[in-house]
Design goal:
The chain has helices at 6-25, 35-44, 50-57, 61-73, 95-115, 121-138; strands spanning 48-49, 77-82, 85-93. It has 140 residues and is of the alpha+beta class. The longest helix has 21 residues, at 95-115. The two termini are 32 Å apart. The protein contains six helices and three strands. A hairpin with a 2-residue loop joins strand 2 and strand 3 (85-93). Helix 1 (6-25) crosses helix 5, helix 2 (35-44) crosses helix 5 and helix 3 (50-57) packs across helix 4. It has a three-stranded antiparallel sheet with strand order 1-3-2. The chain is 64% helix and 12% strand.
């Protein structure tokens, strides 16, 4: 069997995963561009500012702004001026987002389960460990 470049394999897996996630999130008004990642982060850290989200999720500022604008228009988040820095906006989940939290997590868990369905527990632990090592290499 010919070995494919790791980047190509990771890219393919990422694209297929994004297609699957988009299919599940679209009925809820959550689109592509990692909007679910932003929603999950805001639910996990209410009052986070946009710059922190950009850094935490490793997206560019334009993607962050577009994603938050969409989530705001769909009623999942609200942005308020930071009382300590009027140029900065703090992002909070709405009650709609809080009610959606279990569905969001279920979709993420189910999609992850499908992605790993051909692996046994040992293989799953191994691939996660190896991918974390690869990711760490980018931060050194």
């Amino acid at each position: 069997m010919k070995n494919e470049p790791i980047g190509k394999l990771i890219s393919y897996i990422h694209r297929q995963n994004q297609k699957e996630l988009n299919k599940h999130f679209t009925p809820y008004g959550i689109g592509s561009g990692g909007q679910y990642s932003f929603l999950k982060a805001v639910l996990g850290t209410p009052g986070v500012n946009q710059d922190q989200l950009t850094q935490q999720l490793n997206f560019d500022k334009a993607t962050t702004a577009r994603s938050l604008k969409h989530l705001e228009s769909e009623g999942y988040i609200e942005r308020k001026p930071d009382p300590n820095d009027r140029r900065s906006l703090l992002v909070y989940p709405t009650s709609k987002a809080e009610q959606f939290r279990p569905t969001l997590q279920r979709i993420l868990d189910e999609t992850n389960k499908v992605m790993l369905s051909h692996l046994n527990n040992e293989e799953e632990d191994q691939i996660i460990s190896l991918l974390q090592k690869i990711r760490q290499g980018f931060h050194e």
